[in-house]
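Could you help me review a protein record that somebody else here produced? Do not assume that whoever made the record got everything right. The record follows directly below this note.
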Amino acid sequence: MLWSIRSKSNTPSNEHLYIQNLSEMRPHMPKYLILFILLFTLSTALFALSTELPAALTASGNPELFNSISAKAKANLKNMPASLSKPYKTMLRKHPDILMAFLIAYESNAVLAEANPRDVQSNYNQTVQLLQLDGMNYSPELFLSYIAKQTVSDERITPYRELLFAEGLQQIMISNPVILDRYRAVSLWSVENLVFQQTSGRDQSPYDITQKSIVGRCEEMQILFVAACRVAGIPARPASTPYWAHMDNNHAWAEVFMDGKWIYTGDMDAAYFPNQTWFSAMVDKTILILTEGSIPADGEEILYQDDSGAVINSTRNYLGERTRTLNLKIRDEKGNPVPETTVSIMVYNWSSLRPILRAQTDQNGELSLSVGKGAFYVLAYKDSLRTLIPISSESTSIINREATLGTEDMKSTMLMEYPGNAFDWQQAPETWNEGVRLAKSKWQSKVKSYTDRALPLAISPSDSLLAELWIACKHNQDAFADFLELHQSGPAIASDFASYLLSADPKFLWQARADQFEALYRFYLEQHDFIQTLNDQALEALLSPTVHYEELPEPFYYKGKPNLYPRYFISPAASPEQRLEQTIAMLLKRYKLDGKRAMSGLLRLDLAAASKYLYLYQLKILACSALRANGIPADFSRAADLINVYIDGQWKYYSITNNKYADQSSTTAIDANLTAIIQIVDSDGIPVDIHQVQLSFYRDGSFYPVNQQPAFVGNGRFEGEYPAGEYLVQVGYRISDSKTFYSIAPLTLSENTATNTCRIRIEGYEQNWDNVPEELMPIAAELQKQGLKIAILGRYQQENTMRLYIKLEATGKSFVLVDAQAAETISPEHTNYFIVSPEWAKIIARDPDKQYRNYTLYLSEDGTWKIYEGLWESLPK
């Protein structure tokens, strides 16, 4: 058994169902259902007159597949409330075929519960129309998994197929019978509808992206492109590396089925040639590349499969013969195989080893899987036993490792290497580049349509805050205007609320309806005085209407007013400590942890509140919401049953199953706090100032940071006060994008002060900032002439360029982004930081590969210009 780790759901449409289970919610369900059933019966009867599915998708033409998927569809509806499952059961009766059964079987029932059934019907109708226009060109399993599938990641279901088909994809499909040409046309269409922007983890749907925000992070670029390909009849699926090994962060992109094999693509504006994108020269550095499929094909490396689909190891599609095979054998101390041992594949990312895949050994204690060429760790554990296994970047194609589970301290040091791979970048024809420029100009026109829109009467031209909010709402301005109209006859909207909205997650502005704006505003006013005492992190953990990646909640109505939370959440206790304990006690009494009866997937707050049975992670999300309702900032934690709560000015772990504060050590702690000291030195024993230091505790196969990290006190030394117990110190630094030093060591805090210090020696400490090469010196000289000391050489809106931009922006230092050409679209806040260099354009003309690479130039104190390729850890001194 294996399963992947996501390192990352969206707002409902105006017509989404209301839940009737709680008396405080709108009693709209009965009339809605009656109207739905009448309209549904009429529309499906008319639709049936003109539809006919290929035999391979019918019950009579493919009875074995129909029986299998139909049974899964019915089982998927079992745990849903009857009021929500009823429309889907009606749809299954009206359309007793494989396609409808698939659409209901292979979405989580949580996603179906929050969807409007009419949206599923719309997607069904549009898929039938696609078949009529384009034919059945693939096996039924491939067609269903990678064309008919409605969602791509964690986004909600919307009727996007009909919308996108009408907005250009129908013409693209008809005009491009050759799949390669169709793929390129869909890529340009995607450039027209989205520009990269780093956003929060809650996924936007294709509808949100094209109709509201027209921006998104890499996973939302993936969602839009995969959805667009599917609408146009191209099989497509999501691919990702949950965490990079050679640099911090992660990435998501798309795979497309073409000429009998899966190809990949990244940036849509550079998608002319398949298997060519900005990370093509670093695929060897990855450890695992994962993708997903509902019904995987024979011959694919299946890592995990259940009734909802499969996680597939796609690494060999990228590395080919360079792929390594890892063979693990896990034994106990007597040499016997240990079956069902959990195995975590872990990479160093954001100051810690993080799991990108969890697996279980077979009955012989063995596990085999394909991996990339970069270095990583394997953590094998069962019950209280564990072992940490370093896997270096050795060149052999077969890696055989036998390890023994035990109780020894986890201690290891490794220089982790990540070899690159040769890649010959091909230049797209000028006609393609012209198409990209045209697509970006169309995107800019969409931006102009909301930035130039006249202010509504509810916003005075002199009110700069509301005017700024008006533009920030992008194409969701009507909802914001409706919210403002609710307050036209009363007191004006509090200016500090407007300021908060501008500083908070912008997805709320793009997705919220007027009643959701109002529910948040009412809660803001309730907490107004307390809000003034909070720092930014605690403020967001109090006011955010979502906790993890779930959708924006439907408001809870009381006396005709929308509220963010149900009234039964509220504890009458006076002190935060009492409210904390009473709230968790109430939840434990009201809800039962039962995975066999709970709906699966991320539940919107209103759906979770109306449920009786929950998974642990769903209860944790619900607990955070309930605590926020009581004025207690709370955040989701990936650690077991723990959440983070902010009490008395400090973040603390809290166990929701035990209803008490949790120990942060790997062993039972005593009440007394002791001083932990971490000393970092180089190979000569000289203290070095490295800030990628994390004090962690181990639990259930993962490393979790303590709430308050040790403070840097100078001279390579960190100190902090913690309860006695067993901890782990993790230290790492990126020497370059090909090398990372990593060390993990135990730290025992006890009454014996001699054991309270952890000393870590970093061998060969240096950071690989090189002198600027001669060909770049004219650019450096021009920068220095203008009084500039820091610059990025890259492409505006290319993902890693923008990540460098954000990283430099966080330092507070002045810098510029140097591009070879003027950007077709540029955000107003970036204008003063952007320059075009003819010299850089000449260099790219000589070596086109450089246009897809990223460099940072830095003028050091000794007057020497330094350069670093990729994402650096810190600027040179």
